[in-house]
Amino acid sequence: MQLFHRAMAISAIALSCSSFALTAVAESTLTLGEAVRATLQHNPQLAGYTFKLNALAGEKQTAALRPGLRVNTDLENVAGSGELSGTKASELTISLSSAIELGGQRDARVNLVTARQQQLASSQRVLTLDVVTAVTQQFIRLLVAQEELTLQEEFHQLLQQTLTSLTRQVQAGGTAETELLRGNAALTRATLALRQARQRVSAERIRLSAFWADTSPDFTAAKADLYGVPSTTTLPALLEKLSNNPDLAFLSAEINVRSAEVRRAQSERRPALEWNAGVRRLQESDDSAVVFGLSMPLGSSGRARGAIATATANQQQAEWDKDATRIQLEAQLIAAYETHQLAVDEVNVLRDQVIPSLKKVMRSTADAFDRGRYSYLELNLAQNQLLNAQQALVEAAARMQETRIELERMIGSTLNEQNIEATP
Which H or E run contains 403? Predict the structure, then answer.
C-alpha cells in the first residue's frame, strides 16, 4: 500500500467513525499515518461540515412534511340593515382546509435534499483528500529537509577532516598556505549551509504540525523511505482509472442535484388540489349544516415551463462541466505521468550509476591528496561533485514521490504496493 492510499484509507475510517481515536504524537519520530490521523482530528478546514450536514438534515425534515391543516372561521350576514341587522341572520362557518399534492411534489422535495446531501458528502470527500494530499506533501518536504541536513552534516565532517589533513601538509611545507585559506573558507561556508539546513528542518516540522493546529511540535523527525521507487504503471491503465477521480465524482453529484431540480420543477406542472370541510351554523333557523369545497388553480403547467427550462439548462451545464473537467484531468494526468517517469529514471541513474562512481572518484582523489599527488582544488572539486549529485538525488526522489501522490489523487486509488512508510 502506498503512502497516499494508506492516507486515504485512514481518512475513510476517520469519516465513518465518530469516536476515531487520535494516536499520540509524543514520540521522537512521526509516521505519515500519525500525521494524517492528527490532521483529520484537528484540521479547522474539516470542522465546518458538521454544521452543513445538520442544516441539510433540517431541510430534509421540512421537505418531508405534508401540507398542513388550516382552521378557517367565516361569519356572514352580520351588522347589515333590515332583516340582516345585528346577528339575527348570521351564519358562522368553522372549517378545516388543506391541499392534496397530486404531482409528487413531496417526493421531489425530499429527493432534491437527498441529492444535496450526497453532493455534500462528495464535497467532504474531495476536501478531505485535498487536506490529506497537502499534509502528505508537507511530510515529504520534511523528509527532503532531513535528507539535506544529513548530507550537509556529512559534508561538513568531511571538510573538517580535509582541513586537518591540509593543516598537516602546510605545516610540513608540502602545500602552500593559500590552500589552507581556501579550506578554511570552504568549511565556513559549509558551516553556514549546515545552520540553514537545520533551520529548514525546524520550519518544515512546524509547517507539518500546523495541519493539526499545533505550532510547537513534540516530534523530532519524520520517519519514512523517501527513495522507494514504485513499479511501472502504464499510462493507458491510469487513464482507465480516471473515472474514479473524486472531482469527477463531485461533478456527478452536481448533475444528480440538477436532475432532482428538474424533477422538482416538473412536479409543479400538476397543481395541488385544495379542499375544505366544516360546519355552518344558521342563526336565523337555529340549524347547522356541513359544508365542503374543492378548488384547483388553473394554468399551473404554463407557469412551470420557465422553472423547467431553467433547471434543464442547469443540468446540461453540469454535464458539460464534467466532460470538460475530464478532458483537463486527462491532460494533467499525462503531464504528471511523464514527469513521474522522468523522476523515477533520474533516481535510478543517480543512485545506481552516478553517485557510486563519484564516491569512487572522491575516495581515490582523497587518497592521492593525502600522498601529495593531487591539489586541494582537485579534492574539493570531487567533494562538491559528490555533494551536488547527492542533492540532485534528493530532489529527484521528492519529485518522484510528489508526482506519485498527484497521480494517486487523480485516479482515486494506489498505483502499486510500494510503501513510503517502510524504513530505509
Answer: helix 376-411
Distance CA 375, CA 157 (A): 19
Is the pTM higher than 0.85?
Answer: no
Assess contact for 401 and 144: CB atoms under 8 A.
no
Q: How many CA atoms lie within 13 A of 10 on its CB side?
A: 26
Which secondary-structure segment (H or E) carries 93? strand 91-100
CA distance 309 to 261: 11
- Going by DSSP bridges, is the β-strand pair 91-100/273-282 parallel, antiparallel, or unpaired? antiparallel
Grid cell in block for residue 383 = 567533494
Closest CA to 90 of 75, 68, 105, 106: 75
The rounded average pLDDT for each run of 10 residues, N- to C-terminus, in the chain (424 residues) is 47 37 53 90 82 86 83 73 60 79 83 90 89 92 96 94 87 80 92 96 94 88 88 85 89 92 84 80 74 78 82 92 94 94 95 95 90 87 95 96 91 62 45
Of the candidates 262, 222, 160, 233, the one whose C-alpha atom is nearest the C-alpha of residue 25 is: 222
Cα separation, 19 vs 26, in Å, equals 20
What secondary structure does DSSP assign to 288-306, as a single string? EEEEEEEE--S-HHHHHHH
